[in-house]
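#structure-requests
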Amino acid sequence: MTDDRTTDRYAEWGGHVLFTTLLAVGVAKSSTGPQPAVPLMLAALVAGWYVVGAVASARGHRERAGLWSLTLTAGWIALVAASDDFVWLAFVLAILCWRFLPRAAAAAAAVVIAIVSVAGVWVTQGFTVGGVIGPTIGIATAVAVTEAFTRIAAMVAERDRLVDELVLTRDELAAQQREAGVLAERDRLGGEIHDGVGQHLASIIMLLRAGQPDAALNTAQAALVESRRFLSGIDGPAPAGGLSEALARQAAVLTDAGVPAVFAEHGTPIEVSDDVERTLLRTVQEAVLNVRRHAEATSAALTLTWLPGEVHVDVVDDGVGIGTRVGGSGFGLRAMRSRVARCNGEVSVDATPGGGTTVHARIPIGSIA
């Protein structure tokens, strides 16, 4: 937290001006007295000690401010004993003692200053009500003003501390949001590459191994088109011919890869957004790729089910089960779930060793279609 002492400096300079003025008035009056030497010498000592404390305070050294104010008060008492012309310095001394001393010591010092002030006036001018009330009210006012200033300064310091904490918290939250944004974008880009270009590259490898170079070339061209869209920051197009035809083609791809697959659609199709269609297609593509690469399945089934307010896709195979598959990184499943979650949907995987795997995705339609 920064230490803004502008208000303190104004108050200090005001105190310096007041002390200097009252001291100068006392010097001027006492110098015309019958024995001015002693008061003037004491006044010089008090002034010098005041300058020592003022310089130390200006440099930020306030460790001994309490001792300094007590010593200054003692010097003033001696000065008042020599000449009552300096009695009104009591106002400044009460301020200094109340500011730099603990409250109990400050209260005792204020009482002593008040007594000395009244006694000084009484000795030289005799007892009067004004001679008692005037110094007492003046010192009480000094104490009250100093206490109010101290509390206001404490409130300002607390406010500054809270503001600094809020700024620090804001910066920390902004940094966390930036980091979260970077991680989210990294996951999104990873999912796009894995589900798009990655799928095409895996298909190219399998087609080449199966001795189908023409089909591999077509797939490579599709991968190039999708890469260009990706680098341009453009989402891939909605499935050509609609979601049903796109899923039927995935079943055909699986069949061509040696895993006989069927596609079935249930319910009444509902118009959905391009994002939902792309998400469901990517989900099925990932599941189909896993079947081709890891499942060791002999058959599979793809199902698209339309229900009121939601759409479901299922990819079922009779392979070894996802728990016993080898070669997968797990990234595809994470990307699948992340993509479906962005559409407020959910993905579940039901698998048993040797009993096949079912990948199920559900997306609500009403709020996002």
